[in-house]
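The protein record filed below.
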Amino acid sequence: MRIAFDAKRAFQNDTGLGNYVRILTSSFFKDFPEHEYFLMVPKVTDLYKVPNKPNIHTVTPTGLAKTFRSLWRSKLVTKDLEKLKIDLYHGMSHEIPRGIQNTKVKSLVTMHDLIFERYPEQYKAVDVQIYRQKFKYACEHSDFIITVSQQTKEDLINFYKTPADKIQVCYCSCEKMYLETVPELQKQAIKEKYNLPDQFFLSVGSIIERKNLLLICQAMHQLKGKLNIPLVVIGRGGSYMHKVKEFIAAHGLTNDVIFLSEHPQSQSEGFRKSWDFPAIYQLSLGLIYPTIFEGFGLPVLEGLFSKIPVITSNISCMPETGGDAAYYIDPFDAESLAEGMMGVANDTFLRNTMIEKGIIHAQNFTQEICAARVMDVYRRMVG
């Protein structure tokens, strides 16, 4: 097969959607070398080191299209796809080029979530309209759709009336660095680098309302005097972060919540490129991820691969990602979370059981398995 990808995110996003594209395409290059691959990218950066192999090509706009890179990605790229005799084009982040349905090129789109439809008040009104237009177009005109969770599949059916038989759930994987046990000396070096406490819970993710960091702080306030374990936060934020900090200051938690984005070492390459994160995960007592809604919830998977307990929400797609390994809480109830934190901190049997189950459950999400599932979709589409 001659397979093309919308690779913009791989070269421009250092987390999230960028990781999805880099992990999946890299797995294809390694596990399915019999195919010809084309990375369609408006502008190449050094964020993605593409293997130098004869069956892997990076395609950028030429001529006048170089002046209109966004237009090339959203429409004009179809001419290049036809010239290259592409069999299948995979829009890897909610979009396909307009008019691709009028070519002989089969099209597939990955839909990660419809969070803006569920929580439009958390987005600018103009962005909601733009997203809705692009996402609905992709769902209506692509030949097939992949979602990264059953939750997102159900959302497409409910919000956009997309036929269920047009959608296949293919879960994400995470970076392989989370699978490796970090040597003790390296963990201690990371501990010293960021001045981490001996014991701490970990929170990972953008500091926005939906991620629910405030609930963790409320649970910590309830636990004052019973469980005085600090929280280390990896993530950045704006107005919601300010709201969280106001609560922290008002309830005497200033020394108990550590924002690593404000640490001088957050400017280091190890932090910016996440290289230090596996060690931080493994140094922690456990991950707390009380999100209100996700498309997949990648930090939960990173926690399971890191062999630490994971506390997460009992709603959205989190039970899909966490399986029988996670400790589930009500994300609207601080007392529910406080009980979970007490259990993970004090119950050795619970901790060990969660870790053992997490190791087993995580094997359903290896890069090899996730790539193979998507490749099966490609084969069914192209024949």
About this structure: The two ends are 10 Å apart (CA to CA). The chain has two domains: 2-173+367-382, 176-364.
